[in-house]
């Protein structure tokens, strides 16, 4: 049975929007019943509707002062404790990060439809037993039509002007990057709505690459949900702190690092501190969270986490932890619980399509990894035919595909070739060499161009 009222965090988002957004207030007034909310939410919402009826707009434009005055008049009849409750609630709303209007509408719409269908089935069941088919059909059809009338998302040319042509619209959606400067310069950053995949051999640093993206997003103030199917949750956390602070898990005298100086590649010795150092841990925590981001890590045994489970945990975190991730990392698809299918490659393809759907519907960045075929092991570069183990169609379903390749000589030097193999919205077929120092958590401590004549960019 579904919940009788909408989750509190979603109620907070709802109130924030009807207080601030005139279009949202109009839609909510016409389409969202108040009995799905707590009493305080419903009462404040009614004040917003009254304000909208009188002035034709939401109560708050640039400031909250006028609306606070409205609340002061409304709460005069309450005792002091209840007054404090209302004003405390408004203070919390003012401190909120602005939620996505489209996402909030979609989530509330889904809730209303589920409740309406549930009530319709209860009402229709005894009628169906009595053979009153016409009445049953009417009740169910009404339930299916319930919810918020959705505005169809068309881009009309020329009516919608040329805003969609502006490059700044794309840049505003960037929430992370690869953390490899030579590639980030050309890729331009990782954006909401994208599905990113790292390809490499077994034990080929794919998890480190995923964590590199997580670290970049976290330090920019975004929320990350990291689902690991191989490593323990604690190992992922340790690696994150190693990466952020160049820390070592064990006592070592020094490690060799690389850097540029006057256009020349040089080496130096670095003397790392220990991850177990409490002072270092406190400093890294401040560094990672100073912009307000959080990261949640969950371990799933291999073969137990399905697409449905990912949707469930996303909904759970929103409802009970007030946590909506900007970045979802699932490491990695082929060891998730795949949909039932006679052919494994069909199940893999369906899962990649599902992950891309999550990225689009929730407007988040989704990152995963995949193994290359055995034909690509031990090579400094692989062909697209060698790239995806399981199903080549995954290349068509992802927005950005990055290969991690290394030959025997490079392994001895801690070097790795990283190529942009697939890019839906930019250049592809180029790469660089990175220098790994995994002893201190550095996936790409240093990068340099690949110097070879055959290095050319494939057309988009």
The assigned CATH architecture of the largest domain is 3-Layer(aba) Sandwich
Please provide the ordered H/E string of secondary-structure elements.
HHHHHHHHEHEEHEHEEHEHEHEHEHEEE
> What is the CATH top level name of the largest domain?
Alpha Beta
What would you call the structural class? alpha/beta
DSSP helical segment count: 16
- The amount of beta strand, in percent, is 15-25%
The CATH topology of the largest domain:
Rossmann fold
Tell me the overall shape. Answer: globular
Read across the widest sheet, the strand sequence of neighbours is 7-4-8-9-3-10-11-12-13
Describe, in plain words, how this protein is organized in 3D:
The chain has 16 helices and 13 strands. The radius of gyration is 26 Å and the shape is globular. Residues 452-460 have low confidence and may be disordered. It has helices at 8-20, 22-31, 39-55, 65-74, 80-94, 101-129, 133-144, 167-171, 181-187, 206-219, 233-245, 278-289, 307-321, 344-362, 394-397, 408-412; strands at 174-176, 190-191, 195-200, 224-228, 255-261, 264-270, 295-299, 327-331, 365-371, 400-405, 415-423, 430-437, 442-449. The strands form three sheets. Strands 7-4-8-9-3-10-11-12-13 form a nine-stranded mixed β-sheet, sandwiched between helices. The protein has a two-stranded antiparallel sheet with strand order 1-2.
SSE blueprint and pairings:
Elements: H1 8-20, H2 22-31, H3 39-55, H4 65-74, H5 80-94, H6 101-129, H7 133-144, H8 167-171, E1 174-176, H9 181-187, E2 190-191, E3 195-200, H10 206-219, E4 224-228, H11 233-245, E5 255-261, E6 264-270, H12 278-289, E7 295-299, H13 307-321, E8 327-331, H14 344-362, E9 365-371, H15 394-397, E10 400-405, H16 408-412, E11 415-423, E12 430-437, E13 442-449
Parallel strand pairs: 3-9, 3-10, 4-7, 4-8, 8-9
Antiparallel strand pairs: 1-2, 5-6, 10-11, 11-12, 12-13
């Amino acid at each position: 049975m579904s919940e009788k009222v909408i989750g509190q965090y979603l109620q907070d988002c709802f109130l924030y929007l009807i207080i601030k957004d005139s279009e949202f207030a109009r839609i909510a007034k016409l389409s969202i019943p108040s009995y799905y909310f707590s009493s305080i939410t419903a009462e404040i919402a009614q004040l917003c509707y009254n304000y909208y009826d009188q002035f034709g707009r939401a109560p708050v434009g640039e400031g909250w002062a006028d609306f606070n005055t409205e609340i002061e008049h409304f709460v005069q009849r309450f005792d002091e404790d209840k007054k404090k409750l209302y004003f405390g609630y408004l203070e919390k709303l003012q401190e909120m990060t602005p939620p996505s209007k489209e996402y909030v509408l979609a989530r509330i719409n889904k809730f209303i439809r589920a409740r309406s269908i549930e009530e319709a089935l209860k009402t229709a069941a005894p009628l169906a037993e009595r053979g009153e088919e016409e009445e049953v059909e009417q009740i169910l059809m009404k339930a299916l039509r319930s919810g918020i009338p959705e505005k169809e998302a068309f881009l009309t040319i020329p009516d919608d002007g040329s805003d969609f042509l502006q490059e700044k619209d794309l840049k505003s959606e960037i929430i992370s990057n690869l953390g490899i400067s030579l590639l980030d310069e050309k890729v331009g950053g990782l954006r909401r709505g994208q599905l990113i995949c790292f390809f490499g051999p077994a034990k080929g640093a794919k998890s480190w690459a995923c964590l590199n993206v997580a670290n970049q997003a976290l330090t920019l103030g975004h929320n990350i949900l990291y689902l690991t199917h191989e490593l323990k949750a604690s190992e992922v956390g340790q690696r994150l702190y190693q990466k952020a602070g160049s820390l070592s898990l064990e006592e070592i005298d020094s490690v060799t690092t690389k850097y540029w100086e006057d256009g020349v590649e040089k080496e130096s010795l670095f003397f790392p501190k220990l991850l177990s150092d409490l002072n270092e841990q406190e400093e890294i925590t401040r560094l990672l969270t100073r912009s307000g981001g959080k990261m949640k890590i969950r371990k799933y045994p291999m073969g137990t986490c399905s697409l449905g489970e990912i949707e469930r945990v996303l909904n759970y975190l929103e409802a009970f932890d007030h946590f909506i991730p900007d970045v979802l990392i699932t490491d990695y698809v082929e060891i998730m619980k795949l949909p039932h299918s006679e052919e494994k490659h069909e199940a893999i393809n369906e899962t990649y399509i599902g992950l891309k759907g999550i990225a689009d519907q929730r407007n988040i960045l989704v990152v995963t990894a995949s193994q290359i075929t055995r034909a690509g092991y031990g090579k400094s570069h692989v062909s697209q035919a060698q790239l995806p183990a399981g199903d080549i169609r995954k290349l068509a379903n992802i927005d950005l595909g990055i290969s991690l390749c290394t030959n025997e000589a490079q392994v001895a030097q801690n070097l790795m070739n990283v190529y942009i193999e697939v890019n839906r919205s930019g250049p592809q077929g180029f790469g660089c060499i990175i220098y790994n120092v995994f002893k201190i958590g550095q996936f790409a401590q240093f990068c340099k161009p690949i110097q070879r004549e055959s290095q050319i960019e494939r057309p988009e």
